[in-house]
Amino acid sequence: MALLQIAEPGQSTVPHQHRLAAGIDLGTTNSLVASVQSGMPKTLPDANGEDILPSIVSYQSDKVLVGNAAKALAISDPQNTIVSAKRLIGRSLADIQQKYPNLPYTFSGDKAHPTIATVVGDINPVQVSSQILTNLVERATQALGGDLEGVVITVPAYFDDAQRQSTKDAAQLAGVNVLRLLNEPTAAAVAYGLDSGQEGVIAVYDLGGGTFDISVLRLNKGIFEVLSTGGDSALGGDDFDNAIVDYLVSQFNLQRPLSHQLERQLLEQACKAKELLSSQDSVDIDVEHQANTLTLSMTKAQLNALISPLVSKTLRACRRALKDAGVSIEEVQEVVMVGGSTRVPLVREQVGQYFKRLPLTSIDPDKVVAIGAAIQADVLAGNKPDSEMLLLDVTPLSLGLETMGGLVEKVIPRNSTIPVAKAQEFTTFKDGQTAMAVHVLQGERELVEDCRSLARFELRGIPAMTAGAAHIRVTFKVDADGLLSVSAMEKSTGVEAAIEVKPSFGLEDGDIIKMLQESVTHAKDDIQARMLKEQQVEASRVVEGVEAALVVDGERLLSPQERTAIENALQELTKISQSSEIARIEQAIKDVDTITASFAERRMDSSIKTALAGHSVDEV
Amino acid sequence: MNFFELFGLEADYSIDLTSLATTYQALQKTVHPDRFAHSSSQEQMLAVQKSAQINDAYDTLKNPIKRGEYLLQHLGAELPNEQASFQDIEFLMVQMELREMLAQIKFANDIDAALMSAQESLDIQARQLWLEFEQQLAAKSDAANQQAGETLRKLKFYHKLYIELERIEDALFDD
Predict the structure, then answer these.
(1) Which residues of chain B does A180 touch, with a Cβ-Cβ cutoff of 8 Å?
(2) Which residues does chain B have with pLDDT short of 70?
(3) DSSP assignment, residue A462?
């Protein structure tokens, strides 16, 4: 017997109204937008019929170019044309320079918040991503014929907190509502899973331009449970290109540093050679240098020798992910290939050999992520109230705290299903210690210096006690987008400190508002008007949600007095939300929240009971 | 609501893991924040809380050691303090020998056989401890529960040895 079905608490009782939503694959090299139309997920092309938007933004004194228009300037104007901004997002200057020493940009800003100096001023990687998002959202708005309710944006599973937060910041800057940040491999699994309706364990091998992800999932009755995820947030097809460039530089006897133009030219030729060698056995490479043409012939075997160590590195990550999932190679039923770099024959061969089966490539590896994101966006927007689909994702990296001696104590281990909340108790080191420095870290290593610093804050006002007597409870919470918040409390006094973890390498509070005000594209956009609209949308969401809840459960869970009180608050909110007073609307929403808090909780508990009842009836 | 109640179970150590997984999925289908993406912020927050609680409960109940500890605490037993020094000298000696055995694996002539035999030694001893644990629980007395806590503490040593063994295996593969 199937499980009993329960109505979705927030389900609208008004006749079905299709809400516009889209899935965005914000890629390192290319970006796409897709949407579900008449039940079918499709990528949306631009006016020229192109699905793929190169993730390139060129800042010119009179205009900002995005995509192919910007790509044309990548060689002639590399300093103002930003390619692969995704590799820079949420990263410190030191990180960037160590990993990509030959970038053609002039970096400005401080170490933790690097910016790129362009003709229109300093540009943050978040702003670059936001331009790409704006372009795609406009495309979707036109194709779908209306404003989007929200979008699902995909991120590599291996993105850390700073990179996720920065991606969300980019969306905020672009003025789009993010329904969810979704891990790319999970999105790909959704695209394939719904296609084939299969059950069992699948592995998603995702090698993009700048990142590698491996995820192991179990599919069961519409539930996608991520068992483990692993990879490398700084390994991708671009590294194949770089390996070829390094090879060319040594073969041509060139001395670094080279001019930005020459580096770019070498890179383009390397990329072209890699692509051609997918279908032919050798390729001629020509590079113009100081009025000479440098020529070289490269074979597939030479290419394979250059990239083989990189492919092996991905397979080691696969082994670890299988181990973390507690799954053997034999249990894996399918291997899904995602990302343009999986077109490289050596990659397909090695992955096939490792998993002992032919990898799935039936959905275009460039589109599969956007398609999965579109399916999830459609569900989240509320267009499929009967959908059984649910994605249970995990934290890619462990989260912890610095303790005495520069060691990291893990609070949330990697591969914990999100959302997750965990608390752990710590104590003071010295007699009379009245403050405590909380240093939040992400990573698997034991030493602080080997992990990524996410945030620091202080808990002050601890009563002076002997060392080890205070009980400080630190709580880590990771929401469904994979974003972390941390709070600390001394138990005997209740002294408390909390922060939304604003990553050390992301934007500072207030930066977004400032950038919005300064941004050329938003100059005409009145920020006040935007904030008002956001509040009005939230108000109507609240009213709609509570009204629907009253219809379903009002009779059953509320006394007549409680119901009247709620209805009055709703009326008040509806009235006030017509006005243009942001603060009053905000207050009216809070009032409704307060008065419905216990109703919401009762409904949640009641649906849990129903779910349990449905389950145990099923078992009898 | 305690974790057992949350999953509609009696507070008991033996659990049907398949049924636990099914209940988990049914519960998440009801409370996961994705079900509330279109609801008010308040409902979304509540969903995050409930969903996290269910994840925590599932994580605890599906893991034998964590489930054991949770059950003992639920039964009112005080778990041994991790920091307190260990009294069972004999047990510690065995632990040192096992550590030494693991450290020697990489020098073995037949590494696969050495890995296998190490795994077996750990399995046999851990299984014995689990048997003791179940007998102690079955006695249903405060004193026996206290002993069961000590047994779990010993099992944690084995858990660490298993992790160490995996690490050694990983290192051998990576070279």
Answers:
(1) 34, 37
(2) 83-84, 173-175
(3) P
Sorted by sequence, the CB contacts under 8 Å of residue A320 that are 6+ apart come out as A230, B170
For residue A31, count other CB atoms closer than 10 A to its CB.
25
Q: Where are the domains of chain B?
A: 3-62, 89-174
Q: Which residue of B has its CA nearest to A423?
A: B56
Report pLDDT digits (tens) over A593-606. 999 989 998 998 88
Domains recognised in chain A with CATH numbers = 21-236+306-394 (3.30.420.40), 397-506 (2.60.34.10), 513-611 (1.20.1270.10)
CB contact (8 A) between residue A480 and residue B48: yes
User: What is the CATH class of B3-62?
Assistant: mainly alpha
pLDDT for res B35: 87
**Which of B33, B40, B59 is opposite residue A545, by nearest beta carbon?**
B40
Residues of A in contact with B43 (CB under 8 A): 9-10, 545, 600
What is the sign, positive or negative, of the torsion defined by CA atoms of A288, A248, A74, A112? negative
- Catalytic entry in A46, A51, A77, A86: A86
Stated pTM of the model: 0.84
Residues in chain A with pLDDT values less than 50: 1-2, 4-5, 10-15, 520, 617-620
Tens digits of residue pLDDT in B8-19: 999 999 999 989
Q: What interface predicted TM-score (ipTM) does this complex get?
A: 0.87
Burial class (CB in 10 A: 0-12, 13-18, 19+), A569: buried
CATH classification code of B89-174: 1.20.1280.20
- d(C-alpha A463, C-alpha A435), whole Å: 9
